[in-house]
Amino acid sequence: MNLFLTPKQLEILKLRHDGKTQREIAMLLGTTRENVSIVEKRARENVRKAKKTLDAYERIMAVEINLRGINDVVKIPKAVFKEADAISIKVAHSATDILELIESHIEEHGRAPEKAFVLKSGAIIFE
Question: 46: buried, middle or exposed (CB in 10 Å: 19+, 13-18, 0-12)?
């Protein structure tokens, strides 16, 4: 199986997840703590890149909804459900959940979202 992580990276991440320190892992594997640190850092970077790649892929496969013409944020959930229904995607959020996501977006970005992406999983991402 081809992965973004080597068997050694997977092993170190698992041991770290289990609560082992880098020094303990180094002793178990017969290497230095510095080497464990480097392998762990590279593994976490590979995981981050893989997640970003999957996010980008999900977005290009998602339904994109332009929200610029909707002046009342309370109308956004209806627009999202309508677009998702048109292509048989079951939205994984209630209207109230969507409004909470919009509120979080406004708090974080200082403005209402201009686009919504409905993923095949039914999740929603606002931009």
Answer: middle
> Global pTM?
0.64
Q: Is 2 contained in some domain?
A: no
Last residue of a domain, one of 58, 79, 94: 58
- Integer Cα distance of 52 and 50 in angstroms: 5
Domain presence at residue 13: yes
Neighbour tally for 103: CB within 10 Å: 12
Number of domains in the chain: 2
pLDDT tens track for 63-96: 899 999 898 989 999 999 999 999 899 999 999 9
For residues 69 and 102, state if they share a domain: yes
Task: Determine the straight-line distance between the first and last CA of the chain, rounded to whole angstroms.
Answer: 35
Cα 8 to Cα 26: distance, rounded to the nearest angstrom: 12
- DSSP string computed for 6-29: -HHHHHHHHHHHTT--HHHHHHHH
Q: What is the mean pLDDT of residues 98-117?
A: 94
Q: What is the pLDDT of residue 61?
A: 86
